[in-house]
Every structure is written in structure tokens, then in C-alpha cells.
Write a structure and sequence with these properties.
Radius of gyration: 59 Å
Number of helices: 2
Order of helices and strands: HH
Distance between the termini: 194 Å
Length: about 140
């Protein structure tokens, strides 16, 4: 009986109060594990949420940078095309002026050619007339 009371022996006898205490300890351990597990899951979810938010923010920032770069490139391109357009407008104006000058010169050249044709015709007629006079003179002399 002493061995039973002392708890030293090979007996596996556990009293009702001891069983309740052991079961309460197991319940407390399981509750602690469950609490730790829920805390860990909550922590993991929080960490994952933070990682996802950082990744989303990084992606949004990259998209914003890419969009800003594209806007800058397009703005530069538009400015280049505006300058090119102005240069071409100036060149067109210069070419129109040159065409007007050439048309005016062509008209005056045509007038000069017409006058020279008239003179040539006159000189040809006068030469023929002169030749006829010479032939007539020679004929009368002979």
C-alpha cells in the first residue's frame, strides 16, 4: 500500500483526480498549440498579404515608369515631327517662290524668242530681197 501511495512501483494505477489533471494539461497543451497554430497562420497570412501588396505596388510603379517613359518618347517624337513639318513648310515656300521666278523667266524668254524669230524672219526676207536685187542688177548689166 505504501508503494501505491508513494507512486513508486510498477503499478499503473492513476486516480480519478490525476486523470482529470492529466487531461486538463493535455487540453491546455492542445489549446496552446491551436492558438500558436492560429497565430502562426495569421502571421503567415499577414506576411503574405504584405508581400502581395509590395509586389502589386512594385508592379504598379514599374507600369507607371514605363508609361511615363512612353509618354516622354511620344512627346519627343511629336516635337521632332512638328519641327520637321515647319522645316518642310519653309522649304515648300522657298520652292514656290523659285517656281514663280522660273515661270516669269520662262515667259520673258518666250517673248525674247518670239522677237528673235520675227527679227530672223525679217533678216531672211531682207537677205532674200537683197539677193534678188543683186541678181536683178547683174541681169540688167549683162
Amino acid at each position: 500500500m505504501k508503494t501505491v501511495l508513494m507512486g513508486t512501483g510498477s503499478s499503473n494505477y492513476i486516480g480519478r483526480a490525476q486523470k482529470i489533471l492529466v487531461l486538463q494539461q493535455k487540453v491546455n497543451e492542445l489549446q496552446a498549440k491551436q492558438s500558436d497554430s492560429k497565430t502562426k497562420e495569421l502571421h503567415d497570412l499577414t506576411v503574405n498579404t504584405k508581400k502581395l501588396e509590395k509586389a502589386r505596388k512594385a508592379i504598379n510603379e514599374q507600369v507607371l515608369k514605363d508609361t511615363q517613359l512612353k509618354v516622354t518618347e511620344l512627346t519627343t517624337s511629336v516635337e521632332i515631327w512638328k519641327r520637321r513639318s515647319k522645316a518642310l513648310d519653309v522649304e515648300i515656300t522657298v520652292l514656290r517662290i523659285q517656281i514663280q521666278k522660273l515661270l516669269s523667266k520662262s515667259e520673258s524668254d518666250n517673248q525674247l524668242i518670239d522677237q528673235l524669230k520675227v527679227l530672223l524672219t525679217y533678216y531672211n526676207k531682207s537677205r532674200i530681197y537683197s539677193l534678188l536685187l543683186i541678181v536683178l542688177y547683174v541681169y540688167r548689166q549683162s
